[in-house]
Every structure is written in C-alpha cells, then in structure tokens.
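Why do we care about 3D structure at all? Because function follows from shape, and shape follows, mostly, from sequence. That is the central idea of this module. The next example makes it concrete: a single protein chain, its amino acid sequence, and then its structure expressed as tokens.
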Amino acid sequence: MLASTRGSFKLSYYNEYKSYLRVIQMSFPTIKSTHSLVAKHVNKEKWDKLKNHKTKTSGFTLAKAIACAVEFDNQHCGIYAGDWDSYKDFADVFDPIIQEYHGIKADAKHTSDMDFSKISGNINPAAPVHSTRIRVGRSIDGFGLSPGITKEQRLGVEELMKKAFSKFENELAGEYYPLKGMDEAVRKQLVDDHFLFMSGDRNLQVAGMERDWPEGRGIFHNKEKTFLVWVNEEDQLRIISMQKGGDVLGVFKRLANGIKAVGTTVKKESGKDFILDEKYGYVHSCPTNLGTGMRASVHIDLPGWTAAGLDKLKARCEELALQPRGTRGESGGQTGHTYDISNKHRLGYSEVQLVQTMIDGVNKLYEEDLELQKQQE
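And the structure:
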C-alpha cells in the first residue's frame, strides 16, 4: 500500500513538474544576449502572438528559434530557422531582423545569377594569393533545416545526396564519406585535409543542429580535393569549391557546375528543387546567410597593410564591400601578414556581383599594398 502511495505521489509530482515546465516554456523568456537583434525585435506582444505556433514541416517553434539568444550573452543575431515555414510563420520576428542585418528594404527582391561567363578578369597573377575558396549553402524543399529537421528528413537528404554523388562525372567525380561508422584512417585523412566537421559547437548544440549525431551526416570530395559537399551540418548542404592560387574564375566555374549537377540529380530523383525564396534568395538555417549564402575568399599576403595597421585595413575593406579575417577563421585570430579576404554581403546581390566585387577589391588591395610597402621603406 505504501509503495503504491509512493508511486502515485511520484507520478503526481512528475505530472506537476511537466506542467510547470510547460508554463515556464510559454512565459516570455529572459534574453541573455541583451544587445542582439533578437532582444531588439522579440517583445512580449510578438511572443504571446507566436509562442504556441508549430511549423508544419518540422514542428519548429519560436522558443527553439531564439534559443541561442536566450542561452548565451554573446549573440549578435541570435536566431535560427527550423524550416522554410519558420521564415513565413514567424515573419513578425524574422523580417525586421533580416532587414536590419542585411540593410535591405521591406519590399526588396533577391536575384540569383551563377553565370560565370559574366565575370570580368581575374586576380592579378602577381598577387601573393595562397588559395581561393568559394562556398554556398543549399536546402532542398520539403525537408526541415538543420535546427528543426527530423531524423527521417535528415536521412532522406543524405540518401538523395548519395544518389547525386554517384552520378558525378569528370572533374566532380569522387566519394562520399558518412560520419557514422567512419574508418579511423579515413577520419584522420579528412582531419589532415581540414575537411572534417565535428560535434561540440555549443551554438549548434543549443540551436538543435547536433541532434542524433552523427547519423545522416557526411562529407563528399572529388578526387582532386577541389570540390566538397558537407551534408547536414549547419545547412542541409554546404557546397565548396577551392584550390591553390588565385584563379577565382576557375573556382567559381567549378562551383557553378557542381551546384547544377546536385540540383539536376535531386530534381530527377525526388521532383524537389532547392528552396529559392523570391524575397530572401536561397534559404539557410541562419538568416545571416540568406540570399546567395556565398562566401568567396582568398588567402593573400598584405605586408604593407599589416604595417599600416589592422584598423586601416578593416576600414578600406569596408569601402570595398569586403571583409578581412585572420586565416584561422572568424574567431581564430591573426598571424603574420596573411589575411582571409572575402565578400561582405550575402543578400541583395547576385553571386556574379559578389565574386566580381571580391576580384576587383582584392586586386585594389594588392595595388595599394605595393604602394604602402614603398612608403614604408
């Protein structure tokens, strides 16, 4: 009898606790990232209006979307989408954040253009460019985005991509390496090549992107290791073209051909297209990547600008619509006089425009670097 009473008490307590959790989850959250765009654009009125809504594709909620801004105090944007529905269903929140971040108007339209024949010129062959890398993200319609995608949907994306990879020919032909059950020798090689993405990023974990890890995830690369596809990382697909030297046009051409090959096979196998929104371009999980989702970059030596000072280089890059980073990545710091220089914008400009901006801007930085070196002698 006592055991039964204890059992009833535990069950009652558990049910009360679940009810309590639901109440907490539905109350207006404390947003720790007080200077984030989420803190600015998510108020109690919007919260009360949208808090109970779940998206059709993956059952995503506003609470899940803003989890990083609630959990951390260092977010600038602080929001992710769990599917294409999120951008529509939670438009009261997403629209003003996107408009402010990208500097676009409410009635803006996005135009995509991957026609590499429109590119004029290339990086000056004399410029000390170590390597070139261009990446984009793509999402297949009907599947959730990484923060909200279901396990079944994630496996469905991977299965479609396996079929696509098996049909790649010539320069694009290669092999797919699933993360689950990966051979240790393969894993070590991918690490040595700096191709492997791993778990453990707290932002991605809190945003829901590492659920069911590592199932449904993997990496494809061609034989020459100049064309890669990450499957089900931050985006369904991260498509990357890269090589040594400064042949930006060649890298962009390979990227365009690779994207076309993936899209054509996915369409043939499933009848589905990449998600292309009239207003926001190619849809990504992070609104900062909307539009092209493109980052076109080179690693280049700029000793003149290094001596002049990083602040001056940053200001000049801003004028040229470029973004300088250290070669260790966004937060990895700077060493020596080698910089990662990329396009600044994503949304409101076509891929051709962004690649052209990067080519012209890097050439200008190189010319000015030579002048700075002369002045510094």
